[in-house]
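Anyone able to model this chain together with INI?
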Amino acid sequence: MEISGNLNAAGLKFAVVVARFNEFFSSKLLEGALDCLKRHGANDNDIAVVRVPGSFEIPYAASRLAKSKKYNAIICIGVVLRGNTPHYEHVAAEVTKGIARLGLEFDIPVVYGIVTADSLEQAIERSGSKSGNRGFNAAMTAIEMANLYKVI
Ligand code: INI
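re: yes, here you go
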């Protein structure tokens, strides 16, 4: 027997937590995520977009949303761009650990739609060009995992 989640988003409730930092890119990822959810049948009223200042804040908001038990999945979207100091590494490490922890702590999928890029070019590639749109991919993962959780 094989078990997997289907890609039907109708009737599912989603929260998308998006960081405003590097908004030039994160807005593209958000567009991709919303496009994916809607094209797979999600209702506009079933999608909450929650904005936070930067990626570091994403796990904090996602934690509260998970606790509310109102959503079938939470999609986390942010862009962490390498700069001239180690700041980038701390932000990337904390958002990654935080999201992973929430996924284990709560009984809903918390999806990692964070782009970590070494350059502007890499960020461009991942937010709607050469390497696709990571927001779209994250939403697809959320739909599949939310449906998987219904059957396992
Ligand atoms: N936040 C990001 O989302 N991406 C970054 O690249 C970034 N860098 O490199 O500074 C960033 N910093 C802000 C951080 O997420 C917090 O909002 C801030 O430190 C306040 O807690």
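The pocket of INI is lined by residues 19, 21-22, 53-57, 78-81, 83, 87-88, 91 (CB under 6 Å).
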